[in-house]
Amino acid sequence: MSSIVLLVVGFAAFLTGYRIYSKFLAQRIYRLDPDFKTPAHEFEDGVDFVPTNKHVLFGHHFTSVAGAAPIVGPAIAVIWGWLPAFLWVVLGTIFAGAVHDLGTLWISTRHKANSIGTLAESLIGSRARVLFLLIIFFLLLLVNAVFAVVIANRFIGSPGAVLPVWGTLAIALVVGILIYRARIGLLWPSIGALILIYALIWLGQYMPFELPDFFNFTPSEAQLSAAQGDAAVAATAAHTDGVRAGWIMILLVYAFFASVLPVWLLLQPRDYINSHQLFVALGIISLGIIITNPEVIAPAINRDLPEDAPNWFPLLFITIACGAISGFHGLVASGTSSKQLNKETDARYVGYGGMIGEGTLAVISILATTAGFAVFVGADGWHQHYGTWASASTGATTAFVNGVGVIAEGVGLPHNVAVIFAAVVVISFAATTMDTGMRLQRYIISELGAQYRVKIVQNRWIATSIAVASCAVLALGIDRGAGGMRLWPLFGTTNQLTAGLSLLVITLFLLRLGRAIWPTVIPMIFLMFMTTWAMVENLIRYVSDSQVLLFFVGGVIFVLELWLVFEAVAALRRLWRSRENAGGSEAGS
């Protein structure tokens, strides 16, 4: 199979979906109004509520949602074959993910930029708000923990990426000051930032940085057993654990400060210049595919699955996660993006368009891992890498980085630079997602504090401290971060569950307005069915593997889901009864 064919088919489908289906949603279902006064104007405060140019907001929204998940998820899911992964990414993005993202941005804008959890109270009931907020808290906890582990692993595997990634932070601060304080236009700071980032990527090959092991972990029993008495191997594994733990702690300290700073100073400019970097990266990778046209060596449908691989149905839809639809996107849309939306009509470009961009990244990930990486290691090497579910999960970013390295060489990049370039793409967008995720978790903790009148946790510094501490416990609580990717199935399930519940809230609001609900109710039913099934399978697996922490977190989320669904069914029955009573009263009169 030619990789060019898949690239063209995917891009053409996304373009058609944006031009036709998003227009239908904007005009007929959500009915976006250019004259509606958005919360960014109504509550402008210069910190969280900031009317923002739609291109800048697209950059923030896109890079916040387009983290490592649309790379990691498809890179794991191709173990079942490239065809089911490709079909779900394309169709899921157009008819589920983008519908969800546009809908959550719209409904939040219509309700004073309240989060999707808060909206559940007015549409379902008072208990629903608390239930939804708790589900969101656990989702954000998983997002931040998973991405902290992913970034730490990538820093260990690609020390040349350390300089450009951290250098981007300093560049973003300067760009934010230039744009919002010096009032310089967007064009030249953006171009200058992009040039500096790629200069740092070039320098990264000459200035790799490896973090010392500050923790001096002793080898665990599992490591000693796996090493079969080889103390050197066990010591190396322990050293890697120590370095990983160090990076995780540094990343969480950074995320703490990033989540409390004004959005204009770091979050917006970082996301904006990273969006340019992503567009350039997508352009380089796409051009590399067109020039080299690497053959898709991986099977369309893998009929020789390893014994430890779960069934693709329903796990495919959970593993790909953000590459097709993501509840986390709704948290970004209703948590930060709705507070910055200048005009309601910008929601189509930011919400639906942002998800199209994410789907594009997921298609690139599929091609990088099934074509570029397959060329890098050969057909036998590809089957060896995907020979176990554990290897496919832990080596997802490695497959992507090496695959992109091969493809980027087609446009003339030296291999060392191409690999660093790919690693920076993964790390940068995982980091921006973690930035936003920590800020959103601070919002959720504050909302819960307001609900139960606990004033101390409404303080942004205290709320952020709680968010960071809980994330550290989860990220480091599974083999000191080494087993962090075991969180991925639970993250994917919780993520899709949250998307289904968000679509439920949007559907109830559309019903109140008397509008068509099929664009939201169809993907909602599909997701709720798949996530419930997958969650049950995950819990059974955690019991058999004696994963107490994962079983506890997953079990709590599962109970909250069922409770919230029951509350929604009761709210729906009340809505139908009120309509029938209204109809009966009119008939009687």
Describe the secondary structure blueprint for this structure.
Blueprint: H1 3-29, H2 39-42, H3 54-65, H4 69-77, H5 82-109, H6 116-123, H7 126-157, H8 162-180, H9 187-204, H10 221-227, H11 231-260, H12 267-292, H13 312-319, H14 327-335, H15 346-385, H16 389-394, H17 396-409, H18 415-451, H19 460-476, H20 487-513, H21 518-544, H22 548-588
Helix pairs in contact: 1-5, 1-15, 3-12, 3-15, 4-15, 4-17, 5-14, 5-15, 5-20, 5-21, 6-7, 6-20, 7-11, 7-18, 7-19, 7-20, 7-22, 8-9, 8-12, 9-12, 9-18, 10-11, 11-18, 11-19, 12-17, 12-18, 13-20, 13-21, 14-18, 14-20, 15-17, 17-18, 18-19, 20-21, 20-22, 21-22
Structure, described:
The protein is mostly helical and 589 residues long. The protein has one domain. It contains 22 helices and no strands. Helix 5 crosses helix 21, helix 7 packs antiparallel against helix 22 and helix 11 packs across helix 18. The longest helix has 41 residues. The termini are far apart.
Number of strands: 0
**Major sheet, described briefly?**
none
Unreliable residue runs: none
What's the N-to-C terminus distance? 68 Å
Strand content range? under 5%
Level of helix content?
A: over 70%
Q: What is the count of distinct domains?
A: 1
Order of helices and strands: HHHHHHHHHHHHHHHHHHHHHH
Alpha carbon gyration radius:
23 Å
Mean pLDDT: 85
Q: What's the number of helices? A: 22
- Oligomeric state of the chains? single chain
Overall geometry comes to globular
Helical/strand content category:
mainly alpha
Short description:
By secondary structure, the protein is mainly alpha-helical. It has one domain.
